[in-house]
């Protein structure tokens, strides 16, 4: 039996007096495609940001790729991770955000190759070759020398996905990647993510309000409310036959608002 690639063990997270996660535990297996769904404010984004070390934790342990994320061993004792350890661990994970945050003064290909060249010391030719392969994969090979301002929102988000993939992470995190896009541009971004999900063995965690997409994309859906996993299971069961009353209410509201699940 394979070991989990991500393990949340009794994670607590507070912002001042607000406790967002209060003893959260769950595992993710290598290659799994997980959708995190739930009402606004239930802690989904916080979970991804904690994994990306953009937020610290208030308690508990997280294991990523067999190593502690926020702790390390020193002289046989467990101590908080230092910056060098966090830096090493971050390489396992890529993240795509709601806002693409491309470098406006760099062309598309330079946006993709900058991190591999600067943070991993990759030769430019190698980084550019993989950058072009990634642009091909997201359907933007003809935009390599375009500037971000010349792209649509959907194209920018596809570049952001290629940029995150350029560091060859084992885990990809997607946080509401289509919610800042005009509706007609959503599908092209979802198609790229679907392709990644189908054609790679990468572990992927998706936070989304697009239930129809979560249904198609995920192997397992986790329904959160107020920082707790209320229920989890295969998308067919969660979306068509949820067992918990809070999940039922949540999905009823989504359907009543005219969205598909
Ligand atoms: N930096 C912060 N400082 C203070 N409170 C925060 C911070 N980040 C998040 N929170 C609070 O933590 C709670 C959980 O937020 P989070 O963004 O993780 O929820 P979410 O489930 O992703 O919501 P949404 O679906 O609206 O994105 C919310 O009450 C939010 O206001």
From TrEMBL:
Topology class, membrane: Peripheral membrane protein
Keywords, alphabetical: Amino-acid transport, ATP-binding, Cell membrane, Membrane, Nucleotide-binding, Transport
Matching Gene3D superfamilies: P-loop containing nucleotide triphosphate hydrolases
Pfam family, one: ABC_tran
Source taxon at top rank: Bacteria
Localization terms from the record: Cell membrane
Keyword Cell membrane in annotation: yes
Principal subcellular localisation of the protein: membrane
PROSITE patterns per the UniProt record, alphabetical: ABC_TRANSPORTER_1, ABC_TRANSPORTER_2
Domain ABC transporter: 6-251
GO molecular function: ABC-type amino acid transporter activity; ATP binding; ATP hydrolysis activity
GO cellular component: plasma membrane
InterPro entries (alphabetical): AAA+_ATPase (IPR003593), ABC_ATPase_HisP-typ (IPR030679), ABC_transporter-like_ATP-bd (IPR003439), ABC_transporter-like_CS (IPR017871), Ectoine_EhuA (IPR014343), MetN_ABC_transporter-like (IPR050086), P-loop_NTPase (IPR027417)
Family, per entry: Belongs to the ABC transporter superfamily.
PANTHER family referenced in this protein's UniProt entry, alphabetically: AMINO ACID IMPORT ATP-BINDING PROTEIN, GLUTAMATE_ASPARTATE IMPORT ATP-BINDING PROTEIN GLTL
Protein name: Ectoine/hydroxyectoine ABC transporter ATP-binding protein EhuA
Gene: ehuA
